[in-house]
């Protein structure tokens, strides 16, 4: 039997309800904050990711699904969404007129990482980006929105880590100090970090190898090297978060593995997922739009790990499939034909109906209706049809009533209306 690819996974119907619930919650919340949905392709020219994410990163060096297209282009399955959204922002000149745009997208990303619990090769992100706002309040508002997303989903065990990465004006001074410190511990670093350290020393702070983490424990903090503008920006972000009562921890080791980040950077972590503790990450990337050929445009964004969020939720909730309002137990061919037409009529009216398609006994059909959690069962046998009177059983109270065949769908429609109106995507409990 052919199995799915390692690191990929199926989302089965029992779990998909939670995915829909998260998607709906995010879409409603983001719309309130003025974000519009954008959908970008899952594949782009490799160069886009190499240039925006940075050649020195794990993603570009080792993790991209890249292949030569038959036409000769080198294409890559997107490892994240920001680069594509920036490309779209520039390509469609979205900056013309009003450069401010708030966008979000939800979809699959691909990274050839070592698969383990919470880490997949195809995973999903909920991604939000704001273009054209340089001021610090949008940073705080974005973190606030993220905080509310988790609150609306009743996920409480998440904590925000916050840092500033400075800007091209102040980062060189920090880089120098960091390099001087790293030169003293070079032999403790992993081969990747030793190789990268001179070209991109910040990446060493981000390395997950325990020996590297230990080696940089006493590394200087970027916040001590910020220029006056970056300091003022960061001070306003933290003050705004304090005012909004969004809790956070200043984390000097928090740097992003992606090259284009500047100033505010943040990560949401949880204690419930073991090793894969990051559930969302983001920050400012004021230099990227220009680096990719657009006009100089400040920007900030985040990505939530959808799979990890659902993993947390699935420990707290189950998503029950919506049970049918009506099950039609049909006995015999004539009854089945009639039941089929009635079912179609009720389905058209938006009422969830199931019917028996096989040749089961009434007892077996009642059992199945029970298992599905049907609200009512309509019993349609040859005798009932001949008499022109059907039996409707309320599965909760066990009460039975008779319904004349004439006008039965209208009667059922009225009776089951309340079932149709209650809940649209199952029940979270
Ligand atoms: P990043 O784009 O690396 O900043 O990741 C943003 C979020 O996506 C992380 O905080 C994770 O929750 C999630 N994520 C990243 N890589 C994976 C992966 N391989 N499998 C599952 N989730 C991931």
Automatic annotation (TrEMBL):
NCBIfam families according to UniProt: hisS
Binding site for L-histidine: 80-82, 111, 125, 129, 256, 260-261
Biological-process GO terms, alphabetical: histidyl-tRNA aminoacylation
Domain Aminoacyl-transfer RNA synthetases class-II family profile: 1-323
Keywords: Aminoacyl-tRNA synthetase, ATP-binding, Cytoplasm, Ligase, Nucleotide-binding, Protein biosynthesis
InterPro entries in the record: aa-tRNA-synth_II (IPR006195), aa-tRNA-synth_II/BPL/LPL (IPR045864), Anticodon-bd (IPR004154), Anticodon-bd_dom_sf (IPR036621), His-tRNA-ligase (IPR015807), HisRS-like_core (IPR041715), HisRS/HisZ (IPR004516), HisRS_anticodon (IPR033656)
Protein name stated in the entry: Histidine--tRNA ligase
Main location: cytoplasm
């Amino acid at each position: 039997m052919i199995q799915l690819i390692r690191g990929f996974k199926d989302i089965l119907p029992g779990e998909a309800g939670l995915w829909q619930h998260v998607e709906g919650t995010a879409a409603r919340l983001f719309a309130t904050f003025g974000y519009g949905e954008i959908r970008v392709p899952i594949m782009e020219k490799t160069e886009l990711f190499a240039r925006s994410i940075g050649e020195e990163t794990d993603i570009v060096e080792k993790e991209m699904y890249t292949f030569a297209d038959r036409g000769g282009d080198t294409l890559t399955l997107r490892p994240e969404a920001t680069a594509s959204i920036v490309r779209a922002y520039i390509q469609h000149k979205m900056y013309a007129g009003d450069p401010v745009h708030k966008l979000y997208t939800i979809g699959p990303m691909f990274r050839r990482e070592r698969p383990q619990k919470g880490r997949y090769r195809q995973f999903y992100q909920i991604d939000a980006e704001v273009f054209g706002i340089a001021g610090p309040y949008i940073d705080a508002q974005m973190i606030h929105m993220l905080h509310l997303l988790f609150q609306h989903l009743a996920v409480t065990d998440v904590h925000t880590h916050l840092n500033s990465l400075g800007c091209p004006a102040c980062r060189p001074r920090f880089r120098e100090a960091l390099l001087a410190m790293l030169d003293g511990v070079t032999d403790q670093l992993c081969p990747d970090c030793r190789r990268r350290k001179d070209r991109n020393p910040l990446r060493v702070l981000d390395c997950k190898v325990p020996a590297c983490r230990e080696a940089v424990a006493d590394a200087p903090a970027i916040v001590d090297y910020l220029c006056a503008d970056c300091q003022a920006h960061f001070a306003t972000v933290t003050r705004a978060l304090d005012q909004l009562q969004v809790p956070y921890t200043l984390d000097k080791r928090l740097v992003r593995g992606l090259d284009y980040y500047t100033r505010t950077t943040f990560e949401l972590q949880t204690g419930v997922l073991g090793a894969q503790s990051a559930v969302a990450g983001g920050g400012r990337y004021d230099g990227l739009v220009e680096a990719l050929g657009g006009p100089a445009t400040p920007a900030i964004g985040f990505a939530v790990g959808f799979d990890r969020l659902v993993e947390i939720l699935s420990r707290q909730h189950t998503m029950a499939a919506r049970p049918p309002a009506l099950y039609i137990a049909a006995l015999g061919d004539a009854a089945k034909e009639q039941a089929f037409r009635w079912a179609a009529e009720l389905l058209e009216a938006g009422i969830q109906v199931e019917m028996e398609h096989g040749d089961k006994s009434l007892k077996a059909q009642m059992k199945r209706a029970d298992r599905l959690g049907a609200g009512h069962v309509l019993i349609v046998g040859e005798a009932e049809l001949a008499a022109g009177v059907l039996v409707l059983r309320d599965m909760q109270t066990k009460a039975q009533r008779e319904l004349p065949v004439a006008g039965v769908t209208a009667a059922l429609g009225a009776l089951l209306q309340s079932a149709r109106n209650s809940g649209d995507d199952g029940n979270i409990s």
